[in-house]
Specification:
single chain, alpha/beta, Aspartate Aminotransferase, domain 1, Aspartate Aminotransferase, domain 2, seven-stranded mixed sheet, 17 helices
């Protein structure tokens, strides 16, 4: 009885103490999240919001990161429609099956490393579906943090801005290596090689194998061979982020050339793949992370580590998107349709580059050769933030502050207007 009485007194005091604390916190306006600071506005979202709120019928969206047709409308690829029809009636109640996962990873590996590559048939590839390219990068960043916590990741300057966010949030130190020469508007190859050579041995490097984002500038085959050689000497680890395979040249095999060169030279490497842009599946978040290992035993260990990371992070990937991709890649007819559609996309980008270049050359005394020398979805225009702001203010043309133009937003109807506007802002600021 005495014990119960003492317990009751303690609980009573405890309740009063908690109540007093809550009252005290309320009295001083205390809140759990008072110490959280507002973040700077995301620059792309800021541009998007400004574009959407602009009532002008002549406004142009040049920041869009997904494919648009010649009229500027979103496109559902025919191969995707046909794959969706094949999946019609399926009940997506469970997570994606191990069999479908294996099919997806195997076909993704064939795209990256070659259908006849030994790394696929020998079981040396540890692959796992990911939440598009962003998710694949994040998984690799977490793996790097776990097993090489003292190592940096070297990112090209410039690169896709989210690369910095991904490795920062994974608590991996970041550094950069020179890539783009703003004066020549070309690859700064000599500086790139110097930075690779001067980095500590056994460093991690992120490389864009094709259609570099944001510059649209890729090394030549000979330059990739030189880069691979230095990586071999310095024992660096190459991590390829491949979001645009097939959109640089219209040829899936050619756009994987950089990876094949590193593979031929005997590198162990990793690759993030995304189907957001190249299959028009941005909202489905379909990607793959693959890591080449010394042997099948090591591959099994690394795959287990990746599965553990996924289990704690988001448990399992979506079902419908990966099944769409797997269906297309495993069906020869659908894959052939997809390859033709990739060529159509690439041809449209090239046509718009040529049209923009032609119109600018007719108006301006400046050189615009870089527009047709670059490849892929993006054109690194060389416009300054001040010029970009003037385009928004005076011409309702919206793009990121770094001057990156999405060629998906350029059409036959607006290219003359765009060229005239660029000419006016560059003429007035030179």
């Amino acid at each position: 009885m005495m014990t119960m009485w003492r317990c009751s007194r303690y609980l009573g005091r405890r309740r009063r103490s908690i109540t007093t604390m809550a009252d005290s916190r309320a009295a001083v306006g205390w809140s759990w999240w008072d110490h959280a600071e507002p973040l700077p506005k995301d620059p792309i979202k800021t541009v998007t919001d400004a574009f959407l709120s602009d009532p002008s019928p002549f406004k142009i969206n040049l920041f869009v990161g997904t494919y648009r047709d010649a009229e500027g409308n979103p496109v559902v690829l025919d191969c995707v429609r046909k794959a969706a029809a094949k999946l019609a009636g399926c009940e997506f109640l469970d997570s994606i099956s191990p069999e479908d996962t294996s099919k997806l990873v195997e076909e993704c590996s064939k795209l990256a490393y070659g259908k006849d590559s030994g790394v696929v048939t020998e079981g040396r590839c540890a692959g796992i579906p990911a939440l598009s390219g962003t998710g694949a990068c994040r998984l690799f960043a977490e793996l790097q943090r776990r097993f090489y916590p003292e190592s940096k990741i070297y990112l090209p300057n410039p690169t896709w801005s989210n690369h910095h966010n991904i490795w920062r949030d994974a608590e991996v130190s970041r550094s950069t290596f020179r890539y783009y020469h703003p004066d020549t508007r070309r690859l700064h190859f000599q500086a790139l090689m110097e930075d690779i050579k001067n980095a500590p041995s056994n460093s991690f490097f992120l490389l864009h194998p094709c259609a570099h984002n944001p510059t649209g500038i890729d090394p030549s085959a000979e330059q990739w061979e030189e880069i691979s050689h230095v990586f071999k000497v310095k024992k660096h680890f190459p991590f390829f982020d491949m979001a645009y395979q097939g959109v640089a040249t219209g040829d899936l095999e050619r756009d994987a050339r950089a990876i094949r060169i590193f593979l031929k030279d005997g590198h162990l490497l990793a690759c993030a793949q995304s189907f957001s842009k190249i299959m028009g599946l941005y909202g489905h978040r379909v990607g793959c992370l693959s890591i080449l290992c010394a042997d099948d035993k090591q591959a099994s260990i690394i795959k287990g580590q990746l599965n553990q990371i996924v289990s704690a992070m988001y448990s399992s990937p979506p079902v419908h998107g990966p099944l769409l991709v797997s269906t297309i890649l495993n069906d020869p007819d659908l894959k052939a349709i997809w390859e033709e559609e990739l060529k159509v996309m690439t041809d449209r980008f090239m046509t718009m580059r040529a049209a923009l270049h032609r119109n600018l050359e007719a108006l301006s005394s400046l050189s615009w050769e870089h527009i047709i020398n670059q490849v892929g979805m993006f054109c690194f225009s060389g416009l300054s933030p001040k010029q970009v702001e003037q385009l928004r203010k005076d011409f309702q043309i919206y793009m990121p502050n770094n001057g990156r133009i999405s060629m998906a937003g350029v059409t036959i109807k607006n290219v003359e207007y765009l060229a005239n506007a660029i000419h006016k802002v560059t003429r007035s600021t030179h």
